């Protein structure tokens, strides 16, 4: 367990024996789902559950500043000086915020299925989600989540959603609401200006069939001085499950060149 400077216990684990890469999972309010991620023998995945979720202690505060500090606590606990950081979905935004706050500690940034710097994508996401799902969500807890997550995939949605939901923990809706609201209060122009001075090499990975519109990431790509963008056609929100070989090659090739 990592003990943060405010005394919160965070679950963490290292998978593999290669070079470390620090992973930030999606949510907010969810837990590490990188057990399905395979980057090959070259990398050791540093995984952790964000505060309030999964195997970590259920306590706030749930703020962007606090979450960034938690990323740094995990890095330090594992004895890492400078490390690649990979984030997925909300975790992509968290990884970006960490790189902006501590660029000297991030050797490369892998931004997977993030939602960009602005806040105008929600309406299109809702329409896409309802179109793909095709029916009203029913059930509670894990059953409801699995049904919801099937919309994140183009093929084998139920099987992949079951994998994402195993193991299962309660969703922290308090953390989700607090962090989502705070994200909406940060002006896009402020983030764009900060990204223009970020010298950390960045890989943006998009599944072009993601229900979250990919144009939302354009302003991030345009603002970053050192950026590569990879797009996978016919792939949804979790590209390492639907296109594992292509995803692994994109990430490992990028990191080898960084």
Automatic annotation (TrEMBL):
GO molecular function: aminopeptidase activity
Domain AB hydrolase-1: from-to ranges: 20-243
Name of a matching Pfam family: Abhydrolase_1
InterPro entries linked to this entry: AB_hydrolase_1, AB_hydrolase_fold, AB_hydrolase_sf, Peptidase_S33
Keyword field contains Hydrolase: yes
The entry's keywords: Hydrolase
Cellular component GO terms, alphabetical: membrane
BP GO annotations: proteolysis
Classification via SUPFAM superfamilies: alpha/beta-Hydrolases
Keyword Lipid biosynthesis: no
Sequence similarity: Belongs to the peptidase S33 family.
PANTHER family, per database record: AB HYDROLASE SUPERFAMILY PROTEIN YCLE, MONOACYLGLYCEROL LIPASE
Protein name, as recorded: AB hydrolase-1 domain-containing protein
Organism: Amycolatopsis japonica
């Amino acid at each position: 367990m990592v003990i943060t400077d405010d005394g919160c216990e965070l679950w963490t684990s290292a998978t593999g024996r290669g070079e470390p890469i620090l992973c930030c999972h999606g949510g907010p309010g969810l837990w590490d789902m990188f057990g399905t991620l395979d980057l090959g023998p070259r990398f050791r995945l540093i995984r952790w559950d964000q505060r309030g979720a999964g195997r970590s202690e259920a306590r706030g505060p749930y703020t962007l500043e606090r979450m960034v500090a938690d990323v740094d606590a995990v890095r330090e606990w594992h004895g890492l000086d400078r490390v690649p950081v990979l984030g997925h979905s909300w975790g992509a935004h968290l990884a970006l915020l960490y790189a902006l706050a501590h660029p000297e500690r991030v050797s490369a940034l892998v931004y997977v299925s993030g939602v960009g710097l602005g806040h105008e994508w929600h309406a299109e996401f809702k329409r896409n989600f309802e179109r793909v799902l095709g029916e009203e969500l029913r059930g509670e807890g894990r059953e409801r989540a699995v049904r919801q997550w099937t919309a994140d995939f183009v093929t084998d949605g139920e099987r992949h959603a079951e994998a994402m939901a195993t193991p299962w923990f309660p969703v922290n809706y308090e953390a989700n609401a607090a962090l989502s609201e705070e994200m909406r209060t940060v002006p896009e122009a402020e983030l764009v200006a900060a990204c223009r001075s970020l010298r950390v090499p960045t890989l943006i990975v998009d599944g072009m069939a993601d229900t979250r519109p990919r144009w939302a990431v354009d302003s991030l790509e345009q603002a970053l001085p050192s950026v590569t963008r990879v797009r996978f056609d016919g792939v949804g929100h979790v590209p390492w499950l639907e296109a594992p070989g292509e995803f692994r090659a994109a990430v490992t090739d990028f990191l080898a060149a960084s």
